[in-house]
Amino acid sequence: MKLILALDSSQRLGGSVTLLAEDGRRAEVFHDRDQGYAESFFALVDEGLERLGSRIEEVGAIVVIRGPGSFTGLRIGVMTAKSLAFALDRPLYAAGSLQMLALAAGAEDGSPPSPDGAGSVLALLDAGRGAAYAAAWSFSAAAREAIAEPQRLSLDEVAALASRLGPARRVVALGENVASLAEELAGGGFEPVVVSSLASIAAAACRRGDPWCPSVEPSTLLPVYLGLSQAERIHGIDLGDEVHRLRPPRPGK
Amino acid sequence: MRVLGIESSCDETAVACVDDGGVRSNLISSQVDLHRHFGGVVPELASRAHLSNILPVLSAALEEAGWTLDEVEAVAATAGPGLIGAVLMGLSCAKSVAWARRLPFVGVHHIEGHILANDIERPMTLPALVLVVSGGHTQTVWMEAPGRYRVLGKTRDDAAGETLDKAAKLMGLGYPGGPLIEKLAAGGRAGAISLPVGLRRRGELDFSFSGLKTAVRLRLEAMGDEVSEADRADLARALQDAVIESLVLKTAAALDALGAGRVRGLYLAGGVARNAALRDAFESLAAARRLVFTPPPPAYCTDNAAMIAWAGRHRLLAGQRDSLQLGAFARRPLSSWS
Questions:
Q1: Which of residues 259-298 of B touch A (CB under 8 A)?
Q2: Choosing a second label site near B152 at 20 to 30 A (CA), which of A5, A247, B12, B259?
Q3: Residue B98: exposed, middle, or buried by beta-carbon count in 10 A (0-12, 13-18, 19+)?
Q4: What is the fold, at CATH topology level, of the domain defined by B125-296?
């Protein structure tokens, strides 16, 4: 595989583009908060390519963070990534944002989060309206097991989940609201982990064939929303897959 | 020039291929079934559905044109106005294709697309006055040439198509309401019910439809629970007549404001331009004012990508290019765009 191009616009702030070369050279370009993701993406990618002295044609695979996160940001990232995979005719890979946080907390390359070979990780993202996207995994040298699958929780529910995690536990959080919660947890026996670029974590995961960064079909890839649209919530209607189903095109008439 | 066009500003996912000879493919994937649950377009759901549908529609449009991506020479997409999250889907797709294939890219103002739908099958007679009338827009536009527009009058509240949609909802007809009102109105009696025309005063170029919507609601309330089919038909007829009277009145006012000799062509654009009674009324207006009037092809009236690709082609042939940092916009006057 040549260059891996990883895109992350999943969170309101701190999105990035990472280009990872086969020899390990890496260009990590962060999104400027004065511009929307849709405006800045290609300027970021061009800057990354320039830093590596590479060209578009050298991109061998596309990776995108598929959520959970900001609905609009997720859609821009997924739309851009799937369109690039289509137009460049390159494979597309997709990674969950909470899984990538967990990898940052020490499970990368299968290394466990504690010296004695085992531990657990609580991954947290802002979900707006006083809630968090949360997931927890236990890690050992041999396996990762879900303690709690990615879900939307109130901050109280996150605290309850945190209390279920055993010793050698780490917390990794991205977002203003969950950062303060992570600080509290750090006072209660959690080792805090700082993460900067989800795109870089995903690019590395893709490079080593991590099962948390699988290849996906561009035409059918959807974000992981973990939530109904506001209209569905208000009207009490869950349309499920009806929203995303393929609506066959017809000629204009 | 072979141009790929993408439109996603509301509830239609549309992709088209055009070249110098005209439209090679023009495909539309409609979300009407989805939004019908809510009686109107839900922006978040529109964005979600566009995301699923754009690439399959794009592939189908290329196939129908007999093109591969290698044949595409430029990419155009609606940049606004519209539902911002929905616009962003088509725009992000178009920019990605342009970047990946190193192709020129242009953003298109959705209203300019509607106007230039009149130019697809035969060149427009210019300068022209165009009435843009749809579910989201109602405005009179003076057009000197492609890319040179001045908005003369616009609605101060609801769009004409929106008024028809809302009235249809009040009358329990369903969604989208325009074609349903037109069908029902065909069986109604002219003048049986009188409804108001907003901003009627002489010389006023702007439109207003909110009073009309209220009048329909009050009339329905007065009719009580048991409304006969004949009464409903009369009401639909009165509503359609009032909307068309307003549209013709304001178009005539715009012609007066421009003065003699500054307009040669008269045009309709937008989804409501499919309405047969409106077309007839414009035929009469054009004849009275000695203007050239050609009704737009129905296929290019409602939201479609052929008009976006065609408008993009005009901009590209004029040497215009947009940066891939072009943003989507929810609102921006046509006059300040080109």
A1: 298
A2: B12
A3: buried
A4: Nucleotidyltransferase; domain 5 (3.30.420)
